[in-house]
Amino acid sequence: MIDTPFNNLPKIHARIEAKSKEIDFSMPSDLHIGSLLQTLIASKPNSRFLELGTGIGLSLSWMIEGMDANSSLISVDNDPELIQISTEFFGEDKRVTLICEDGSVWLKNYSGAKFDLIFADAWPGKYSEIEEALNLVTVGGFYVIDDMSKQENWPVGHEDHVIKLLDYLQAREDFKITTLNWSTGVLVAVRSN
Question: Could you report the average pLDDT of every consecutive run of 10 residues in the chain (193 residues)?
């Protein structure tokens, strides 16, 4: 099977992509992971979602497109410029809360309700504070990470972090794991108990 063209791009996607080029943002998200997030979120009406690593808001736009009117989403990033840009795009959406804070600090201090999907697209929640992040996933909820396939821009030694993380997640008995050699390398986990 070949990937089909994307006919489900978020309405705001082109504007965010243009802003990304304007500020020379070097870590835009892949269209495939965006489409997957939109689909997974659409399967969870009246739910709560968390994105760790807002970036410029490309993945966030896909996530919002998948949400129903009764769902909510928190997105956390430590870069005030990127949060400001994302606020310009999404600040009017009452379902979305944008937080400018170090993800590690936020995960350690968060004491609210759990989430039906967490997309960890930053170091915190993926390579650090993994336990805190996984503890926030509801039973039946998704934990999604990308960038698991080797990439040219990885620093020396990063592949060891990826292997260690994959081994750790696959050894857990409270999550069912699927790895996909697709997009940038995706892992989808569902909390089973």
Answer: 74 91 79 94 99 96 98 98 97 98 98 98 96 98 93 83 95 96 92 97
